[in-house]
Amino acid sequence: MHAQSAKLKPHPAEIATLLRGETKTISAWSECWSVQRFALHVGVIILGAGFYGGAMGWWRDPQQAFYVAVKFPLIILLTTAGNALINAMLAPLLGLNIPFRQSCSAILMSFTAAAAILGAFSPVMAFMIWNAPPMSPQAVSGPAYSLIKLTHVGVIAFAGATGNARLFQLLARMGGSRAIALRVLFVWLAGNLFLGSQLSWILRPFIGSPTLPVEFFRAAALHGNFYENVFRSFLQIFQAD
Amino acid sequence: MNDQNPVPPQIPPQIPPSLQGSRSPGDDPYERVAIPNVFAAIESILRQPRRLMFQLRQPGAGKLIAAMVFVSIVCSLIYGVLAGTFSGGTQLWAAPVKITLGLMISAAICLPSLYIFTCLSGSQARLLEVCGLLAGLLMLMTMLLIGFAPVVWIFSQSTESIAWMGALHLIFWIIATFFGLRFLQTGFSHSNARSLAGFKTWVIIFLLVAVQMTTALRPILGTSENFLPREKKFFLTHWGDCMTVTNSLSK
């Protein structure tokens, strides 16, 4: 009994439990709401994604590093908050009858796992940036820029995939069915990607550009949206032919 | 001695096949718990839709239906205000009024045909129960739209394209309507209906009416000097016109 309550008490070391995907314990956490645990997860997101964002922006300028360190966790937290209501409504409609807090907690925990991974990779990324030539128009057109970009894509994809794998395991345990878990995960993922992409678009730049000033928002942050831009790019490809 | 006129074996009367599963609303004790207020109705439609369906068959279901219509009106007004933030100005009050009115009028226009199709399908549902199921459709739809509201607001602040915002609202409306219609279909299936053909026909009618309503009450996203349009248009023509204007502006 004592061991059980100790397991439910929030502790920074529980991030390891989250990463290991010990669904029995994680499911118990999500069932009993705790402000301390919520603060712990938000803290890990701020630190993990913040450090990674810092490493990302550092190549352009230390000020850019600070901006991205603020923006990266902000995207995660705003996406979680913005989709909280619709995600909580869709879960029972798709067969997973969990309360609002539990659905928010599950999503937050998956982002926490992803942010912890990002945070762990931030020294590696910082080392890579430290070894890269200074950001200049020549460097941006060279192999260093491509390598840095691809490494970011790889690390973020790994963190995201792991976070979602853990979320899937948790949902399967909560719902008792892999089919339901897959359905809910797919819908939540689609919603989060949809909003997350737009928030990233508004909060650009991240890596930065040597020809543009260092700034928190671009002047045209709220002009147009991510999907319009993708659509226009497609049109340009076909019109060029 | 052989019996020349044997008594035919007794065949049990055939039960007409219905679409409902083995369990019907009210089979579980928790589904029999009354729905005392609006919040319980919201909770029920998301988590225990069968409880709501059972309560719609009980005496005094009128209050529950009124509560569901009330939630639908409030939710569509809130969503309308958010839709109106795209253009601002008079649209902040015109869009919510038009969205709410459009939704309620569409439901009222389609209610008689839903009842007729329900009867033709062999369903035992009374008119009040059909009203309740339709109110449930509206409530679930508008609640889901509220869930999408933060996303709508973010996009309405970051784009100037009416075609894009129109498409976004349409996608969210389709998702919300899908879940609303799924609730209605479940209710329909539990009312001893023998076939879903009538229901499916009604769904097409409802979708066409609702989509045409957005054109009849235009502009909902854009701006105009008049509250209602002077020119009559079919929705496909209107969408085509919007796309043409957007393309010419982007060029």
Structure notes:
The complex is a heterodimer of chains A (241) and B (251). Chain A is an all-alpha fold. Chain A has helices spanning 2-8, 14-20, 23-31, 35-58, 62-93, 100-131, 137-141, 143-175, 178-202, 226-240. Chain A is globular and about 55 Å long. The model of chain A has no long low-confidence stretch (mean pLDDT 88). Chain B is mainly α. Chain B has one domain. The chains are: A mainly alpha (241), B mainly alpha (251).
Give the SSE order of chain A as H and E letters.
HHHHHHHHHH
H/E series of chain B: HHHHHHHH
Largest interface, by Cβ-Cβ below 8 angstroms: which chains and how many residues each?
A: A-B, 27 and 21 residues
**Span between termini of chain A:** 70 Å
State the separation between the terminal residues of chain B, measured CA to CA. Answer: 99 Å
Proportion of residues in β-strands of chain B: under 5%
Classify the helix fraction of chain A into a percent range.
over 70%
Range of helix content of chain B: 55-70%
| Number of alpha- plus pi-helical segments of chain B | 8
Largest β-sheet summary of chain A? none
How many separate structural domains of chain B? Answer: 1
Blueprint (SSEs and pairs):
The complex is a heterodimer of chains A (241) and B (251).
Chain A: H1 2-8, H2 14-20, H3 23-31, H4 35-58, H5 62-93, H6 100-131, H7 137-141, H8 143-175, H9 178-202, H10 226-240
Helix pairs in contact in A: 3-8, 4-5, 4-6, 5-6, 5-9, 6-8, 8-9
Chain B: H1 38-47, H2 49-56, H3 61-84, H4 91-120, H5 127-158, H6 162-189, H7 197-216, H8 235-250
Helix pairs in contact in B: 1-2, 3-4, 3-5, 4-5, 4-7, 5-6
Q: What descriptors fit this protein?
A:
heterodimer; A: 241 residues; mainly alpha; B: 251 residues; 67% helix
